[in-house]
Amino acid sequence: RVKEKKCRQTSREIASQRAKTNIIAPLMEAKLKKLADQYYGIKEFRPLQLETMLTTLKGEDCILIMPTGGGKSLTFQLPALAAPGISVVVSPLISLMEDQVSALKKQGFEVAMVTSATPQPEQAKILRNMADPNSKLKLVYVTPEKISKAKRFQSAMEKSYEAGMLARIVIDEVHCVSQWGHDFRPDYKILGTMKRQYPNTPILGLTATATEKVLADVLSVLHLSHCKPLRAGFNRPNLFYEVMEKAANPPAVASQIADLIKGRFAGQSGLVYCFSRNDCEVVMSHLSKYNLKVAYYHAALSVQERKEIHHKWLRNELQCIVATIAFGMGIDKHDVRFIIHHTISKSVENYYQESGRAGRDGQEAQCVLMFTPSDLFKITSMTCQDSSGIGKSYEVLGFALSSGCRRAALAQHFGEHVGATECKRMCDNCRSTVPFVKQDVTYYVQEVLEIINKKEKDLTFAMIIAEWKSKRSEKTKKLAPGYLDKIIIHCLKEGILKEKFKAGMYKPISYCEEGHYTRAVKSGTLKVYLDIPTPHTAQFIATSAISAASASVSSEKKVPTHSVLMKSKSKSTSTKKRKA
Ligand code: ADP
Ligand code: MG
Ligand code: ZN
Fold this sequence. Notes:
The protein is α/β, with parallel strands linked by helices. It has 26 helices and 17 strands. The strands form 4 sheets. The chain has a 7-stranded parallel beta sheet with strand order 3-4-2-5-6-1-7. A 6-stranded parallel beta sheet has the order 8-13-12-9-11-10, sandwiched between helices. Strands 14-17 form a two-stranded antiparallel sheet. β12 (336-341), α14 (348-355) and β13 form a beta-alpha-beta unit. α16 (389-401) crosses α22 (482-493). Bound molecules: adenosine-5'-diphosphate, magnesium ion (MG) and zinc ion. Adenosine-5'-diphosphate binds next to loops.
């Protein structure tokens, strides 16, 4: 009962302190500004930074959604320094924490970090300080593992709360609590109990990821019923987006990359993202003959080697790093001028995050996505185990195949609207003067369906293409070879074909089967169209068919154009529209 009484008293204290914050908001604002200038050399807050800080200082729960590099750390560091109490900061990456902790310590603040590597006596001292009204401790960084598994840490938090000292719980990369996000961490689940356990302590969640679905999930998992999410814009106007057709074999691909690094990006700093360690090494082995200042980076290198490469790149002694996405979160280099994706990312979300590491200084930077249809199967054979994985991979496909504005497509993915004029020709499709033409490819699709129909065993997509090539009809013979792949991949995206996975020796193998719309295409009630840039129309169908084709294009103007199909919902409606 004594404990209960103490708790009631504590919560009254917290409430009165917060009420004061509300009244003295202008004073608080001045204090925050002074701290920002004094300790960070920051004269002006960016949009939503101040609002976030005042919200959490008032004791309200808050989720801030802001692109990477937007300045989220400031929104919890300054309130922690400006007001009484202790902020517990949950962060998924030890390296990120280390950077922040050492920077704050240098400024003379009392901050601590509790991970599984923290020596016992040091940890005991930190935990004692968390509930000691006389300690100057401001911020305690902690890994989700520690919160979820260490009873001692949990009990220190309880004591801190009971002593009225738990000022806020900050959850960095808060999308990790959601299974719909691109980065789910099981240990983040424990954070769902925080609101019930510490009802008077506000939660501040930070993320750069914010599809509506993930956001709704985050709010529900964390039990934040009164929380107003603050959302900063996702459009990165200084990034130029481009999709480049990827060459057919590794040496040729490396030559494309080398051309970019030596040519367009000469003297600039950048990254090449690869799908796997093996890809990194293969790319690197072919790049080595071009005499570039490039190294590869992946999880199999020793910690020392990785550090060395990272630092050389930071100092611009290396122009470029060929890396897996293990090299990512927490990169703090502001003048990255280009990000080349050797393979498509596994989701649009991932692509946005990975490409978003370019141009953090606000200067123009370029994002080049190298795309070849067969890369899709690399991705889906990895994402197929995850219930929403395949759908997400097809969204990337939509992005890569689209003839519309890339920026608009990315914005749409985050529930934002960016008109094509707002792109200011900062994507390949907006800059291009070559119009796309809708080509009726129904005939070819029917040929593919026939091959699948006659099969005696499951066929992979490569088998289908081989079969298709060997039995080519007169009409198909006139088709430029690259378009066979494109037509098949388009069918997958549209649900005319479907992938089916079977266990393989090392990983699942993707086979082809009939999709939801197969019958409609077979019967001819659903026509299939492919967007083709006009100089390619000549390549697409080699000769005489051209005039007939362009005639059919104009006569089919009434058919609703299929825009970028980023959302699976809009996908089915659009396909149905075409059926009608
Ligand atoms: P995020 O966590 O959102 O990815 P960070 O908190 O790491 O971003 O901040 C990225 C960079 O932006 C840091 O170098 C930080 O000092 C800087 N920054 C933050 N806020 C401001 C501001 N208002 N003005 C100038 N620079 C800022
Ligand atoms: Mg951050
Ligand atoms: Zn555009």
